[in-house]
Amino acid sequence: GTSVMWFRADLRLHDNPALRAAVEAGPDGVVPLVVLDDHLWGPGAGVRTACFARLLAEFDERIGGLHVVHGDPVAEVVRVARAVDAGTVHVAAAHTPYGARRDAAVERALADHDVALVRTGSAYAVSPGRVTKPDGTPYRVYTPFHRAWSAHGWRAPAPAVRSVPWLRPGGRTHRIPEVAVPEGVTLPPLGEEAARRRWRDWKEQVTQYDDVRDLPGVDRTSRMSVHLKWGTIHPRTLLADLDGHDSDGVRSYVREIAFREFYADVLHHRPDSAHGYYNPALARMEYDRPGESLDAWRTGTTGYPIVDAGMRQLAAEGWMHNRVRMIVASFLVKDLHVEWTHGAAHFMDRLADGDLASNQHGWQWVAGCGTDASPYYRVFNPTTQGKKFDPDGTYVRRWVPELRDVPDRFVHEPWTAPTPPDGYPAPIVDHAEERREALRRYEAVR
Ligand code: FAD
Q: Domain of life, per the record (predicted)?
């Protein structure tokens, strides 16, 4: 028999249960299929599409050729499966609203030809939907989810696939598109080898994770997000490596991995929360029409050093430190009164690790309309956040060269320096005033 391995991400040979299932079902040949779907390759999906194109090129070379087609997945997957007379098409289950809908449609179309769509595993250690409250309803708050998730446990990583009887149906395969990285962006090394290397190099430091994770200047978080996003390494692999090790660092790292799983679970149960309010009560908040202030935020020229540093890091690396993601998000929503959806869309555009579940729910958390909602009235003060988490200004100076020579004590509030730095803007708003304004608007809908 033959089978089709339909890759949508997960371009990896280690710990890939769906690929193993495809190999078992296809001793006479496994088609390594990729469908270039306009929904995902449309215009404007800059950094993410560039990442995906690179990953495809790398994997294509690694396995000696992917079978790449272009078009509507429903028609294309059926066509390829029939062309090789495959009995099954294998995937890792998708849990985004679009992915789940697409797969259901492909599954129906395949069934008309007696071909089964077989979902094996997912991008998570515990698949979304698996952990529920005792009454069967989903968790809405992280801490109890985390407890249940920990108790649920995860399977041991699947052994690496060593040899696959790859099968490439005749006919032209579509070229892997070359997508230029948007100007000014430098991406980290991508691909399975790079992911595994990064993890090997970093994992010894996990014991210190708890002490350093909030310090963007120290910059010692794992940076596994881009690899997890693209599935070039599976979270199970990380968890299995940490299993049996106990320290504050390990516990705290596992908690963050579980955060990613929590948000995927939330999105799975509430697909509407990808773009709509998780807590609809806050949908009536009054926001300003986005204009110049949104531009200043995007370009890192708000006059608040930690905000500008974060936005410039995003522009340069397609990544931003978690603490700073929270600060810039709070600033957009509560100091500039711009609705979170605009910020979330900009992040999805620019992040190499842009992930619908973590991003939209990270934003909603900050905006006070998400799960566990950080109460709306807790407004981040960008100056005190800067002083607390970047005390000597290392992070700010790294990304905002205009502030390099400003003495430490002024670096997070350069407008108080005897000689304000050349070329750096004055704050575009007054934080204390905007905080009051944000609270006024909140009171109005409460
Ligand atoms: P580490 O600190 O080393 O953490 C390890 C892993 O745990 C991360 O790779 C990630 O998979 C997971 N993780 C850590 N923190 C979180 C969190 N708060 N929520 C969910 N998962 C977490 N993460 C994304 O992967 N994609 C996004 O699009 C994204 N958007 C965000 C938007 C906002 C407004 C906020 C506040 C957070 C967002 N995050 C997002 C979460 C977090 O900022 C990143 O996962 C983290 O900065 C990635 O760096 P790291 O791999 O070095 O993290």
A: Bacteria
ipTM for this prediction: 0.99
Residue with CA closest to ligand 1 atom 11: 225
CA of 320 to the centre of ligand 1 (A): 9
Predicted structure pTM score? 0.97
Q: What is the pLDDT of residues 377-435, one digit of tens each?
A: 889 999 999 999 999 999 999 999 999 999 999 999 999 999 989 999 999 999 999 99
**How far apart are alpha carbons 125 and 257 in whole angstroms?**
9
Tokens representing residue 260 in the block: 């990613």
Distance CA 436, CA 429 (A): 12
pLDDT of 285 above 90: yes
**In angstroms, rounded to a whole number, what is the distance separating the alpha carbons of residues 181 and 208?**
33
* 340 and 436 co-located in one domain: yes
- 260 with 230, same domain: the answer is yes
Domain membership of residue 344 as a residue range:
280-445
Residue 430 in any domain: the answer is yes
Mean pLDDT for all residues in the chain: 95
Residues 110 and 139 occupy one common structural domain: no
Looking at residue 56, its pLDDT comes to 96
